Amino acid sequence: MNCRIPYRTGRVAILSDLHIDSYMSSGRDVITSLGFETVIKDDLDALIIAGDLSDGPAARWGVALGQLAPHIAPSRIYIFPGNHDYFGGMIEDDNLLAQQTQAIGAHWAQRQKLYHGNTRFLCCTLWTDFDLLGDQNRAMNIAHRTMRDYERIRKNRPVTPGSGFQSPSYMPQILPSDTVIIHNEHKAWLESQLLRSHPARKAGRTVIVTHHGPHLSTAGPVDGLTPAFHSDMTNLIDRFAPDAWFFGHSHRRLRTTVGRTDLRNVSAGYCGEFHRSESKNFIETCIWES
């Protein structure tokens, strides 16, 4: 599915990991606390939120999105989930999250192409394949033991005929192998879109936006959990040379270039984690000019 962002100023902001509930619990406004009020406003053509708007379940998304309404019209918000947005719910909750998004007048962007000027944005959560450091089984075991994703997200399972309704307490928790399946699906979707010719031909630019990271070079200090935050997407980057790749998840605001691709971590983080002194450089990182 394609969506065209109305073009006025040519400016799009991409942010991840706003964790709005952590600001709400402190009685603070997320945008003014971060020092983003100079950019997140109605003269921005669009705000793309690359996951972790808040902790789930899906029914809370509308309230969280409503916290942004004083700064930018919901019609200019394009959003897809990160891992936290599924907390307290199901890994299959994309339909419910999409309903919450559309009910407030914002746009659902999971596995969507967004066109703006001569730029196409390819958006998806991605998850990871746990193979960043070459030992997938070890990385999956560490993630299963230590990450809240595998405690707080459940999955549907077939109901045995005649057994009746299953309450959420009987729904099994997801496993790393479940998110690897989604990673492979999202990676295949990205490849399929990148194989298609750009409508703007040679003048066209391509920007990938995911929640999870695409490369070790923007991971920061490496430990056993790093493969749960980043995958090695070098082959895809080398093959298709997207102009930029925006992502979040790790809360490490790093930026580098791999080949011809500008990699930008645009994760804000929890209340109190981001310091206003960082705002100027971070705003420059999260803005895309189409």
Automatic annotation (TrEMBL):
EC number(s) for this protein?
A: 3.1.4.53
GO MF terms held by the record: 3',5'-cyclic-AMP phosphodiesterase activity
Task: Give the matching Gene3D superfamilies.
Answer: 3.60.21.10
Which keywords label this protein? Hydrolase, Plasmid
Segments forming domain Calcineurin-like phosphoesterase: 11-252
Q: Does the keyword GTP-binding apply?
A: no
Q: Where is the signal peptide?
A: none
Question: One matching Pfam family, short form?
Answer: Metallophos
Q: Does the keyword Nucleotide-binding apply?
A: no
InterPro entries under this entry?
Answer: Calcineurin-like_PHP (IPR004843), Metallo-depent_PP-like (IPR029052)
Q: What is this protein called?
A: 3',5'-cyclic adenosine monophosphate phosphodiesterase CpdA
In its UniProt entry, the species of origin is given as Sulfitobacter dubius
Organism lineage reads as: Bacteria, Pseudomonadati, Pseudomonadota, Alphaproteobacteria, Rhodobacterales
Encoding gene, per UniProt annotation: cpdA_4
